[in-house]
Amino acid sequence: MVEKQTAVYAAVLRILRPMIRLLLRHGVPFGAFSDLAKRVYVEVALDEFGIPGRKQTHSRVSVLTGLSRKEVLRVTRLERPDDTETAGRYHRAARVIGGWVRDERFHDGSGNPAPLPVEGEGATFSGLVKEHSGDVPHRAILDELLRVGAVERTAGDEVRLLARAYIPVTGNEEKLEILGTDTACLIETIDHNLRAEPGEAFFQRKAMYDNLSDEAVGELRKDLAMRAEKFLEQADRKLAERDRDANPKSAGTGRRRAGIGIFWFED
User: Fold this and answer.
1) What separation in angstroms does the CA of 61 have from each of 37, 41, 57, 97?
2) pTM, whole model, 2 decimals?
3) How far is CA 122 from CA 14, 128, 253, in A?
4) Overall domain count for the chain
5) pLDDT at 240 (0 to 100)
6) Do 88 and 74 fall within a single domain?
7) N or C: more exposed end of the chain, with fewer CB within 10 A?
């Protein structure tokens, strides 16, 4: 038990170092981080560590977390940071770009995302947004994609896709949204694998070497990024075929979220 706890502490220290560096860079003091950590401790204890058939109490949460009952009550009353608007922008924009990449109706003769007129006849940006992001005004999506550097307006007043995935060139709020969602997915996958029975672990792999030259790293960064991009585009098409929002004809029961990073995640 002591060895396992030591391993957990060592892992947490490695996770926290880049996180604390980011927090300091963005002016987040320890007190604010401490309150956020306490709040999550309390929420997880309340939601996931109750005794079956019994209502979870603040006293039990206090025992589980090591916080006093007074502190448990205090952190539950703190105002919750709300990134709903940012998350909404991120997911709407990601759906539009994903549709642009895989929907042949919006491709050119070579099978690539075509430059699109904003409105008009045939394949248009407004039609793309309507097809893949519902009733959101296409002007709002266009302004957002222009703001983060994901598209550009051409001299012929068409919209051209600059990246085949939603990776904001600008827009720190969107980048921080990715930090929250992607890091959480990876940790959830690792947590599952720590508890999984043989044969039930999620895919989670990396390839790493520690004696590469500067020149090799520069070459590999470009080469492997292109290979990974190609793989993820294939994965995106496979997932979209079975997603009932992207493909209403796809049948099945339940509602689950799943994807691959080069690690599989689901909840």
Assistant:
1) 14, 9, 6, 43
2) 0.59
3) 52, 11, 36
4) 3
5) 83
6) no
7) N
